[in-house]
Write a structure and sequence with these properties.
By secondary structure, the protein is an alpha+beta fold. The chain is built from 22 helices and 36 strands. The strands form 10 sheets. Strands 5-6-7-8 form a 4-stranded antiparallel sheet, with helices on both faces. Strand 26 and strand 27 form a beta hairpin. Helix 5 crosses helix 6 and helix 6 runs parallel beside helix 9. The longest helix has 17 residues.
Length: 716
Amino acid sequence: MGTLHSYSGARDHAGAGWRRWISGLLALSFLVTLFVVSDASTAPAPSASAADAANWDPGYIIDDGIFYDSSSMSALDVQNFLNAQVPQCRLAAYLCLKGYGKPTETRAADKYCRNAYQGAPYQTAAQIIDGVARACGISQRVLLVLLQKEQGLVTSSAPSSWAFQAATGMSCPDTAGCDPQYAGFFYQVYFAARQFQVYRLNPTSFSYQAGRWNTIKESPQAYCAGKTQQVYIANQATAALYIYTPYVPNASALANMYGLGDDCGSYGNRNFWRTFTDWFGDPHSYSVNAGLLSYWTAQGGSAGHIGNPISYLVTLGENGGGSYQRFQGGTIYASYQAGTVFVANNVFGSKYAEYYGPAGPLGWPSSEQMCAANGVCFQVFTGATITTAAAVGTQIVTGGLSNLWSQSGGPYALGAAVAPSDYYPTSTSVGWSQRFQNGSLVQSSFGTFVVPGGPIENLWVASDGGRGFYGWPTGAYSCVGTSCAQTFQGGVLSSTPTNGAHAILWGLQSLWAQSGGLNGLGAALSDLRGSSAGGGGWVQQFASEGVTLRPDGTTIRVPNGGIWNTWVAAGAEANYGWPVSAATCSGSTCAQRFQYAQVTSSTAGSFAIVGGFVGPWDAFGGITTVGPASASLRYSQANGGGWTQQFAGGVITQITSSPALFTPISPILTTWQHYGAEATWLGWPIAAQQCVSTTCTQKFQHGNALSNAGGVQFTG
């Protein structure tokens, strides 16, 4: 309903109950006559130029120029029109609108009725209609149609007194009488006309607004509450009609243009358009501006997607200047900056209107609407770009982000924006960021960058983007193979397909860069991990190797693969301690010393040398003589118990209260191990192997071993 009236909305609706009432009335011709003269949904028989439902446009009911044309008729024209509608009044002539007259009062001009209304001791209905039209800037034709739409006054041969009291439905609710200050023919006509100017001069103060999509109900009935239409209201006059009567006819009402539709049909705005068309012709009469004519013609003219004009040309000086004209399908803009461009009455037109059109921050349109094969559509303006996609809706991409979006592949690379741009200051900078389907665009004092969609963007956004821990990007996104990285204020974010994204922070960031970045250490495979063991430090694994950072700033790397995996599996620095030297490698064999272990790696695997075996391993020649471990340290209870570990070059053994012994790979060792090693009757070796030329001997717990050209012999 309108702000000050509520009669017309429900009055123009025919529900199931009203249908039953109509059926009863058909039995009595006299009652039928009363129904015809008072029922607003009933109209005179169609004329030779009857309205055609195919020409109904819910967003463009009548031109502004026609609606607000207060010189469309004279008082004499109005009187002649009324006379023609009712040649003979059923009762006394003064009871018909054509013969109606009353005293009227003088009303001073105000903001909405710019001209004063001059009252008189007696004025006819025609004089009142003409006087109000000229005082309040509303067409006499519109007022005539309004009187017919609301109470059927124009064509009724015997209108009721109520029809005059509530002539325009102004502040006359269905459940009560009219507000006394608006009751009566003169006040009804005057304040209805004035109310339309209230709507025009306060266009954003009401539910329905021109230049945007509006959700409009099809009926006031509660059981029809879910039935609505999305209507792009093209002009102010159409918006005013919906504010005054807030319903749009459904398909059934349009299918029976001169009768009733189903139980959810409404008729007020349909009847206004139908009656105006029948009486005065097409309510759309604008012509295409000469400067836009060639463009309009090239786009198909009235038969094309632009359709017929629905406004005059409007000229603006904002944002470099230009002009525009509205059409049924949208608006043609012509600016000095961007030439002639069309903006359709779709999501682009609605969003553009939301931002005040060419006078707002978007400026003038500079490209036609375009759509990529992936379903992303966009239109470029001098100050921004509008993007839309079914999955994410419609958003504005402003300023430098708009240019960067285009330069970065636009709809194909980044897709449509998924949220408005976000502006926020940080302690070191201010900036803007905006998320798209396939990444983020960022502009700050550090530059303008793309953060492509994927693990790095997800990690950055999850930490609150530019205002979060990692801050603004300071470098471009780059990849080597499938590993990618991007530098931010707070560190480097890197990713791999299998390990996701991880941050490279503080001292390790410099080391990473010095190593060659992705070409050096490569992407981080884990987060930076702090430890309190051994005085504290930091650990992080990269694609090429792991790195440890001590509090004193020194770093020691640990090769990926066997050594790293063995160290980590054993509890890393908590058990084996921190690395004390870099790994040394010869071919596929590597070794690295930790505080409490020596870890070796070879084709036989990676194993740790721990405890009392670290010193002997060094003493016996380490990686050169003993070689890498090929098995883990093992304890055996045989023959009193002891420890043993296999190496590439032999075996180190140690029994209680005896020093460790190294037995190199030899016939003696091979034969001893073949028969069960320390579990044989010989037991553990208790002396080092001695060799003279090709003859070797070794003492064991319970015997001796001799090796020469004849083989190996064991004696007790």
